[in-house]
Amino acid sequence: MGKQWRIALMAGAVAAVLAGGVACTQGDGVDDSARAQGDTAADNAAAQVDTTGANADVQGESAAPGASAEEGGPVNSLRQTASSLFGVIPDPPTEVSGRPVTPERVELGRMLFFEPRLSRSHVITCNTCHSIGTGGADNVPASVGHGWQRGPRNSPTVFNAVFNAAQFWDGRAADLAEQAGGPVQASVEMNSTPELVVETLSSIPQYVELFREAFPESGGITFDDVTVALEAFETTLVTPDAAFDRWVEGDDSAMTATEVEGLQLFFETGCASCHNGVNFGGQTYFPFGVLERPGAEILPEGDKGRFEVTATATDEYVFRASPLRNVALTAPYFHSGQVWSLEEAVAIMGTSQLGREISDDEAGKIAAFLRTLTGRQPEVVYPILPPSTTDTPAPER
Ligand code: HEC
Ligand code: HEC
């Protein structure tokens, strides 16, 4: 089983590199969400096993990727491989799954993202666990929500989330609008209900007006419109101009020699077979522990990942290959949030996903490369929120 996975993954990487224009380039996540959501680990394996290829090919490929078709030496061919397998952060999309992103929706979504009255306690906002100032995450192992409860998982960044094929560690929400309905209702997060949210917002005349402008068809505030506005705002939370992106676009000075070596190792060791697409992940699902299951502290037994979504035995302990953009800002790592050092996370990936001992030197270089994925952080003006009225439901504990 372990061996089979390994071959499948390597084959996938080779196929992807050779294909040149790979499936998971920018923007794909938005349109292909439904398909990717349906993918199970088994599907992935099946799809990849048929492709011939082996570890050695991956290494040969990355040592001089596409050398025959390339001019300009190894750096340029590495650049071209990186460009086709990952790409650079594009402009924000103007629609998601057919829902237009309008300035009115973005503006309303910005207010809702910082709106504590979406929570039952009137204390917790989206920004509590996805702080715009700290990489769109909260930098604690498991987020603290309603009544100081801790949820079971680490909060992933909302930055560039629009480019993921599906949302959550297990991909259980197809897109950002579907996702946004989750935390508002989750008892360990904001612990509200769609009815309470609609009642609360409808009691505030400024919101009634803003919703009318953003959703003229709706005839009153709806919970769906709340999620669509949040999604619209989230599409603006993209982080272009990372050092890696500038390097891909031809600026040799954007990455140091060590960082470029790290990128090369990222290919050679096989990381790119799972972490690809514009977000370096966020596209498909794999067992955490393809070759060696990490200890229960890092992979708690109670959280079976995608198995809860698909109820398929092969999806036990299967999780989405994490997006790695801005990973330097989003410690601690893994769905359990138990690893604080990026180097250590890289080394764990070596043993658990690739059956390979990654040396300290290699881990340092790969981590150095991963730090080049930190992009220009979104500058968001903190919104002034309209006051409650006597009709606004009071906060509850
Ligand atoms: C109490 C903390 C908390 C709050 C409040 C919260 N989230 Fe989250 N968020 C999380 C956690 C934890 C996850 C991962 C859960 C999982 O995968 O099962 C998550 C996942 C997400 C994701 C998926 C990202 C990805 O890459 O898969 C998005 C998008 C998101 N949240 C947006 C929001 C929005 C919008 C709000 C406000 C309506 C919000 N969150 C409120 C903790 C929180
Ligand atoms: C077989 C597929 C696979 C391979 C190969 C792989 N990863 Fe992962 N990676 C994953 C999955 C799945 C997760 C999510 C694990 C979890 O549930 O927390 C992950 C998580 C991570 C994380 C944690 C990100 C975060 O925000 O918590 C880092 C860092 C990472 N991988 C880097 C690497 C590096 C570097 C390599 C190569 C040495 C690599 N990965 C190889 C599938 C893979």
Can you tell me about this structure?
This protein has 397 residues and is an all-alpha fold. It has 2 domains: 2-89 and 240-371, Orthogonal Bundle (Cytochrome Bc1 Complex, Chain D, domain 2), CATH 1.10.760.10; 95-235, Cytochrome Bc1 Complex, Chain D, domain 2 (Orthogonal Bundle), CATH 1.10.760.10. Helix content is 41%, strand content 3%. It has helices spanning 2-19, 28-31, 33-38, 41-49, 55-63, 73-85, 103-113, 126-129, 176-185, 194-202, 205-214, 223-235, 243-248, 257-268, 307-310, 342-354, 360-371; strands at 95-96, 99-100, 285-287, 318-320. The strands form 2 sheets. The chain has a two-stranded antiparallel ribbon. The protein has a two-stranded antiparallel ribbon with strand order 3-4. The chain starts with a helix and ends in a 26-residue tail after the last helix. The structure holds heme C (2 copies).
Query: Which structural category do the helix and sheet elements fall into?
Result: mainly alpha
User: Helical content, roughly?
Assistant: 40-55%
Which geometry do the CA atoms define?
globular
CATH level-four homologous superfamily name of the largest domain: Cytochrome c-like domain
How far do the termini sit from each other? 49 Å
Give the tally of β-strands. Answer: 4
Overall mean confidence score, pLDDT: 84
Give the number of helices: 17
Quaternary state reads: single chain
Strand content: under 5%
